[in-house]
From TrEMBL:
Membrane spanning residue stretches: 12-37, 122-151, 163-189, 209-230, 237-257, 304-323
Coiled-coil ranges per UniProt: 45-72
Entry protein name: ABC transporter permease subunit
Domain of life: Bacteria
Keywords from the UniProt entry: Coiled coil, Membrane, Transmembrane, Transmembrane helix
GO molecular function: ABC-type transporter activity
Taxonomy of the source species: Bacteria, Bacillati, Actinomycetota, Actinomycetes, Micrococcales
Amino acid sequence: MMRLSRVELRRLFSRRLVVLAMIGGLVVSALFLVGVWQSSQPMSAADLERAEAEYERQLADWEENGEEWVAQCLEDEAREAELTGTDVDFGCEQMEPQREWFIWESPPMEDSFPMVLAGQSYLLVALALLVGATFTAAEMSTGSISSWLTFEPRRLRVYASKVLATGLGVVPVAVLAVAILVTGGWVIARSFGLAGSMDGSAWSSLAAMALRILVLVVLAAMVGSALGVLLRHTAAVLGVVVGYVVVVETMFAGALGRFQPWLVARNIEGWVNHGTVYYVPECTTDSSGTMCDYVERSLSFGHSTAYVLISAAVVVVVGALVFRRRDAA
């Protein structure tokens, strides 16, 4: 089995599209640092001066008219509550201009970098799917798998070696991509004085997140290789994946409401971020019409873990069953 896997690894890295995809992943990961650098820069002296002037102007306006504005706001709030029969909060007590509304500061690395790393995870997952799919689909579509089976007729061993090779093959590039982003991000944050809060606990949390991303990328590559076997063409795999993302995750995600815990992207988010939240509409209808509020719901890390692992296992097992029985020609 290990001999077969080593052979498949060599064949994996001999494919030009696979190598180009991996290089592309590293290049794009490096480009993420451009966004990190831009978001880490403080306000320029000119922008700071304009913001201070605008804050002072609005504060003076508030000191002159604030009491009148609050009274009008409270009156409108009471009228709306009477009309709807529900509690209404217009935020009348928070109307006074605050300096932080005008003068922004770049967030520390501890707060900002997990979002950057989470964004990179989607890129790495997509590339891993592509690598896995193109590796197996090329052999299935050209029929070269038939020649390979004459040397090793035990189909499940061949299938397992291919799936394992794709999973192992993406590990080095995934580790390097994450390392480039984390190291570069730390250098940038330190140069702007934003890395001071990165203590041992923050680094441990970031390392755990990076490890979860690495596992996810391995699973994505294995799923991609299984889909390549099932659909036999890289274009077919990409069509199914893109179609699902566009139709289900983009067009109808908001309408699915309470079914969001069963969406792939939501559970990837829950896996990477060690849990996440989503929002569902809760509507009430009375004589004045229909009122809807969006209520926050939690998606636990345990749920996302089970979803990701079971989904990946199902696809890989189905691929094995189909490969075992399907005509290889």
